[in-house]
Design goal:
- Helix 2 links the parallel strand 2 and strand 3.
- By secondary structure, the chain is an alpha+beta fold.
- The protein contains three helices and three strands.
- It is 31% helix and 26% strand.
- The protein has a single domain, classed as BolA-like (GMP Synthetase, Chain A, domain 3, 2-Layer Sandwich).
Length: 90
């Protein structure tokens, strides 16, 4: 696990995730135009914090927790933010 991955996990703890799957996809984007050196990541996070929140607000909560990591340590982040009920149904 890279330092960036550990930092992402640590910062997202504020959302009390019941499940957190973080995948580093940087190897798929080597030479990607416009990348200033940050990594590409895919995230699935399940939290009761997301109950009653729109998809956009859920993503804002995640991005706000990681804000200063963009764009130097995170170039791209795909976010799937689910409630516990949604996670059980998927």
């Amino acid at each position: 696990m890279s330092n960036t991955e550990a930092e992402i996990r640590s910062r997202l703890a504020v959302l009390s995730p019941l499940h957190l799957h973080l995948q580093n996809d940087s190897h798929l984007h080597i030479g990607h135009a416009g990348n200033t050196g940050g990594g590409h990541f895919s995230l699935v996070i399940v939290s009761a914090t997301f109950e009653g929140q729109s998809r956009i607000n859920r993503q804002r909560l995640v991005k706000n927790a990681l804000a200063d990591l963009f764009p130097t340590r995170i170039h791209a982040l795909s976010i799937k933010a689910l409630t516990p009920r949604e996670h059980l149904q998927s």
